[in-house]
Amino acid sequence: MYNWLLSKVKGDTVIWTIVVLLSVGGLLAVYSSTGSLAFKQQGGNTEFYLLKQLVFILLGFGFMWLCHLLDYRYYSRLSQLFLYLSYPLLLYTLLFGVEINDARRWIAIPGTGLTFQTSDLAKLALIMYVARFLSKRQENIKDFKGAFLPILISVSVICVLIAPANLSTALVIFSTCLLLMFIGRIPIKYILAVVAAGVVTFALAASLVFNMPDEKLENIARLRTWKARIENFMADNPETGGGNFQNVQAKIAIAGGGLTGKGPGNSTQRNFLPSPYADFIFAIILEEYGLMGGVALIFLYLLLLFRSIRIVIKSPKAFGALLAVGLSFSLVIQAFINMGVAVNIFPVTGLALPLVSMGGTSTIFTSLAFGIILSVSRTIEQEGGEVNESEVAHA
Asked: Per DSSP, what are the bridge partners of residue 98?
């Protein structure tokens, strides 16, 4: 059976193993953390969300397998199509999307009862496009107008369209693209200038929000939410653990887990934590599997990053290498932010833990990202670690 599976999949077997372990761990965590939700919304059918998550994981594996069979060079062309499609979709979402918790992040898929988070498509498309652009501009990569400015405009437009409803995702995408620019040999002075400008802009915006009268904030829901999250995070109240109910419950879960945890399905804080199956699923994992389980999860994401960097080392600094490392960085950064929120290092962001948190279309897009990484790995292995630069340049 094992040999048969190996014959059907190609690419880095370690990354395939990471995907399987994260998916299985996610299934167990989702099943354990959705008990209260099942009693509230499904009449006590605790298997409903387990089966739903399993369906999306299986669909994700199907898309992942198909993506890994496609030569990664085709994604160069597809990146343009997906990016051009992302602009109107993001704009439509911002204006007419489904509103949940004062944020328009989703559009409804007609006839399915499902919602689709357009920022997931935009993130995937933008990273692919940035990798393509950098690989094709290597000869004049230090040219400000010819290389840096066009790519900065594309990144900025996408992030500006995402930020009003999903600031954390926009920041992750922007950070990932800056890392890609650095790896793609964009002059460091340009990148530092963008970072400095971003810090100043963020400081000015924060100052404006925190000095704005509360009655004006009442009319701008997302600004009110951002301010509340930062205030709760910065508060120093021993009785409330920083003033944030979510973080207090997460700390109780983490403390209760100890070194080895309470065991699968034995979480108590799942009944008190808001979104224990999404934003705070890492706290449930720490409660049930202890510090050892948390370290194992961190190790899997770090191993993914290491294997992706290995792809870069084995291949030239071209589209495939940039594509693999860019997608890996986005997944790992998102994972560590989610885990950082659970242990109160960061304010609440709403970012899911890739392949672990309960999700629908987000699980599909995460699987697509893994499939593309595996496509790069498969192609490099088949070519003995050598990528044909002429083919990449014309992709």
From this structure: 106
Burial class for 376, CB neighbours closer than 10 Å (0-12, 13-18, 19+): buried
What pTM does this model have? 0.88
Which two tokens mark 74? Answer: 């085709």
**How many CB atoms neighbour CB 10 within 10 A?**
18
Q: Lay out the sheet containing 114-117: strands in order across.
A: 98-100, 103-109, 114-117
3-state secondary structure of 230: helix
Phi-psi region of 36 (alpha: psi -120 to 50; beta: other; left: phi over 0): alpha
Q: Coil, strand, or helix at residue 325?
A: helix
Say how far apart CA 288 and CA 265 lie, in whole Å.
7
Query: 1-10, 45-54, 152-161, 302-311: lowest mean pLDDT where?
Result: 1-10
Question: For 301-326, what is each residue's pLDDT tens digit?
Answer: 999 999 998 888 887 657 888 999 99
Number of CB atoms found within 10 A of residue 377's CB: 27
- 3-state DSSP of 35-49: HHHHHHHCCCCCHHH
